[in-house]
Amino acid sequence: MATEPMPHIQPSPISAPSDEQFPPSAAQASHTPVLLAEALEALQLRRDGVYIDGTFGGGGHSRRMLDDPAGIGCLIAIDADANAHRRAEALQAQPGISDRLRFVHANFRDLKRIARDHHLDCVDGILLDLGLSSFQLDEGERGFSFRHDAALDMRFDQTSGIPASDLLNSASQEELAHLIWRYGEDPQSRRIAAALVREREKTPLMTTGQVAEIVEASVGGRRGRGIHPATRTFQALRIAVNDELRALGEALPAAIGLLAPGGRLVVIAFHSLEDRIVKRAIEAESAVCICPPEQPVCTCDHVPRVRRVGKPVRPADDEIDANPRSRSAIMRVAERLDETGRPAVERSRA
Description:
Blueprint: H1 36-43, E1 50-53, H2 60-67, E2 74-79, H3 84-92, E3 101-105, H4 111-117, E4 123-129, H5 134-138, H6 164-170, H7 173-184, H8 189-200, H9 208-218, H10 231-242, H11 244-258, E5 259-269, H12 272-286, E6 306-308, H13 317-322, E7 330-336
Parallel strand pairs: 1-2, 1-4, 2-3, 4-5
Antiparallel strand pairs: 5-7, 6-7
């Protein structure tokens, strides 16, 4: 089965450890949101403002946004995982929140449609906390983690698309090697793909345990490595199954287009592929000139839509110690400019 083409992304080594390196502890049972204080500060919440949490997950960021003293007016909480609806309902049941929180089961790539459905011309801020939620990783039956031997599903939205097992058992060896290299950035991608195809000829690949064992055997075991050899393969399969990078590439310009002047876009990424897309999108949208570099005089009359706010933010050591899953996080912030490409007049939180 051929995978759909995506914009070219030059592979680079993964710098961030996977969640598989850090099994959840009792201290992580509350599913602590990453870079919480930093994200809230970056959003500059204002009284009666309208905001979007494009990746509701466990609701940690949403809860703090709704509890903020600024007193925001409305929060649209989006998640592709239908299971997040139950957590949103629990949050809605709390005093003072029910009429300010709206949950939407959808992918954040559909931001334009969601805004239209809720009669929103613009919003005051958008948060995208990318990747897996702790709930998804800890729910063994979802197939995201090889800590649990379960069916290979890996879909964020189990009501659509195909599970990872279908992809693994139908893609050609070349296609598998390509996606493991492109989305997992694994230098052993060809060897892993060959092993997967060889084993599926004996029996279909249906469980996380099967795949983890095949990958580990194909590359010679852990040999003192800090992360499991199958970590990159699992990342690649998850990204491919959920079309994550294309969804992010579609969501970012839509999010910027929805922001009111002075509104903030805050994106927290967890691996280099995501972060590179975010970085390039902000650079492109903040460019003053888009003429070819060799052109001596600017003639494009391009008007930038955003300005970059500050430098990329990473978790402090104490957050990493308390929540190892935050270790690879990186947050980038952009602010919407007015129609002339200038910063909006500073808006009051009161």
